[in-house]
Amino acid sequence: MNDEPIDFSPLDPSRDAARWERMVQAVAARGQAARAQSVPLWLLKLGRPALLAAAAIAVLCWAPTLLRGRVADATSMSPQAGLQGKVRGSGSTQAKAQQSPALQLSAWAANDELPATAELLSTLGDGDGR
């Protein structure tokens, strides 16, 4: 067995102080550059899930209104009445009252009709979404 210690001094990078300092500065500069570039990417990566969460919350908040509107439309109007309203574009006041506002507005637009102000306001409601 050889009990002599191994001399690692040729592998020591700090033997040449100027070279060693240049290496340390280069590593530090690369680290700073990588850190400065990663902040916008980090914000972008963080922004995508935040945008997705906001969209999901908006859909969840809007879902009851959509479902309530569909149930109300389905109970107040048969599919045939809606189609007849779209094709004819005009009809009795009772038939127009049974149509959803969207169908009535699209029928007016499709037939280039300009309804009376009172009829428009009654179709659109009180302005409170009902």
Description:
The protein is rod-shaped. The model is unreliable at 78-90 (pLDDT under 50). It folds into two domains: 14-76; 78-130, no CATH class. The chain is mainly alpha-helical and 130 residues long. Helix 2 runs parallel beside helix 4. The termini are far apart. The protein contains five helices and no strands. Helix content is 72%, strand content 0%. It has helices spanning 17-76, 79-88, 93-98, 101-110, 117-124.
Q: Could you give a short description of this structure?
A:
This protein is mainly alpha-helical and 130 residues long.
N→C terminal distance: 96 Å
- What is the quaternary state of this protein? single chain
The major pleated sheet works out as: none
Number of helices: 5
Net shape = rod-shaped
Summary keywords:
130 residues; mainly alpha; 2 domains; 5 helices; 72% helix
Fold blueprint:
Elements: H1 17-76, H2 79-88, H3 93-98, H4 101-110, H5 117-124
